[in-house]
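forwarding from the other thread:

> can someone predict this with zinc ion?

sure thing
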Amino acid sequence: MFTRPHRIDASSLHRVRLGTSRIVLAMSLIAGTATMSAQSSAALGDTPVAASAHHIDTGTPNSNDAPLGAVSSSVTTTPLTTTDNSPATTGDLLVLDTPEDQEIEGLDVRTDLGLLPSDLAPHIGDDTPEGIGFTEAPAAPGTYKSAERVISRLKAPRAKNRLRTLVIRAHWNGNRKDKTSTKRLRKLTSNADKVLRSATRGRYGINATYTPWIKISRTSCNDVRLIGQRATRAAAARNRAHNADRFNRVVIYFPHSSSCASWAGRGEMPGKYVWLNGAKQATVLAHELGHNFGLGHANVVQCNKSRTLTRRGHGCKSHEYGDLGDLMGAGPYSGLTQAAMQHQASWLTKGRMRNAQKRKTTVKLRPRSSNKGIRAVRVRGKGATYWVEYRTRSGLDKVLSKDLTGVTVSLAPPRRGHASNALDMQPQNNNSAIALPLGASWTSPEGIRFQVKKQTKKRATVVVQRRAKKARKPAAPKQVTVQPGDLSAFVTVAKGNDRGAPIQRWRVRAVPVAGGHTISGTVTATAALSRTVMVQQLTNGTAYRVQVRARNEKGWSSWSAPISVTPAPVTPVVTVSSPVTGQSYSQTIPLRLSASTRDTTPAVITSLYAYLDLPWSSSPVYVGRQGFTKKLDLSYDLDTGILPDGTYPMRFIAQDSQGRIGAVTRNVTIVGKSPRITQATAAISGNTLTVNYTMTPQLNQVQGVLIGVRNTANGSVVASSPWLYPTAGVEAQWTQSATSWAPGTYTVEVIALDRNYWPREQIPLEGQPSWGYHRVTRPVTK
Ligand SMILES: [Zn+2]
């Protein structure tokens, strides 16, 4: 019988060491609170230890998410304990930060409610780069929900053998029945059937029969044998067709009992019984059915000092169900199962595996979800047998996160029912990333070298070489490129020749050419062929020589050839989508703009303002925001108030944390506010000029109307009206004697003025910008 506890006690756990300063527990919390406690190595001595825990919201935004605050405790008396009371949403992380170099010996996580036991996936690694001034992005965890979604859409091979499976819902006093319906259980078994058909490549499936709820006498949820006896007896007594003897498998579901919070499911190994403690995940049921077939857990081996595997395994630990990408491992990403176990359970045909016996074997491996071609290579070494396979996000393995894909090397279990151990080829990363990356090579303690030559969606080309040279320190990185940034430089380094052991990290240094403070830091290698890192805290205008060296488990390479770089400042970028050039606005001007800093600068935007300049005032109309972000938006509908019609200059100005300015200017035209002359006629009859006109006031208050007459030939003003106050919208008339005018052509100007017209002098005006005027001209001849 195996359990999948989420409680990890000191005896089974992981010594986390090597300056590991952060332990990330990826938990898919549904609701409720979690309690986490950690025991430090200082428990053996007398040094108090301090740690802090944070609840990190990575799933649905949750306004209640908040840091837990620091917790501290003297571990000589009690372990560190912290309680996360903030409601969690799926995918949230609970993070425990301990001081640098603090060795954690035991870690114990409990939840009062909602945490699905096998959701716990310990991710252990120094995901915080050691150097200052280096930035790297974290990865988000997956959830059971997304796994179920993949499974429900999965196309699995038809089952040759459908296991007759009796599903009994049992409850008792003290653990009353929940709302789980037959329909819900049907979904569970239908999805688990798909998982099983995929994992066995159509050898097995499930044909389920469901009992109604069955009440049994009070029992402890931990006494699963007794629950099994009572439930099967009661089910058979109620309905002879539900006699467990007639079935290949019996699944007993009972409502989640918090006194058994340490496990979600149990399965006989080998056998036919499965117990589900309120768990309704297809992968949990399929995992327990895997135990019924005699499968052990899919473990991961991790060793000290960033080693992949030491001779005789000294310093190495096997992490129970630590292969997070395996059905027989833990966590929501449980895809197919390791080839060694497939072979053990006779789920892998001879034609789909290959033995690498020659001095050198090149194999084109198909993804393990593929239904044709070579699925696995078996390599028998001295005292150990290795299995190599290829995981891609396809078939059931679509549930895998990207981290969990790639070429894996596992140690075969010594006997049936024993665990298979995947080797962690990226010990520098959290233990979900264990694949041997593309381009990387690994040399086993007995001198077998495995190298990933090529990797596509359809296949991976792996070379297995016996009697290979011992692994050595890597060659100095040859492919290094450096781009200048603002107060920074971008360094890209490709993996190059690892000489028999995967590259785990790089050291980057930037040395000022003229002398001074060297900036350096460490970059963790991922499965990718290269990484780019932003080296910060450099000085603009100063030339630096950048060098990189690589490390594998044998040690550091020499430094790469130096590359010169001189950082230079960059200014913020202002993007204005409104107001639009050439468009006119009336009562409001919609302001839609944003300011951002470029990727090449560590600076952030601190303010973004929009100014509308008034020609008659040194105080512009303005609106703005402050912030401390890479991108700051400003969205505001600026009321034009009593501003008269006309064209105004607008300035949009952003400032960054380095005090640098980015600006955009744009002219904005306001219309529809000031009064207009909507109709005008002018004519000289005899010696009298008669002007008929209509003034429409629009939105702003009206100052009045002025009429002037110019000699068209020389521009001189021959007549002008006093202020006229026509009734709005009603045709008005102005007459003027033309007796003294010389015969010729004249221009009559009829001007409506806003109460706030500008400029206030020189009327009538011509050829200069003005605000709050509307003028029409009419030619007349005397
Ligand atoms: Zn198990």
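The helical segments are 144-152, 182-199, 224-238, 282-292, 339-344. thats all i got for now
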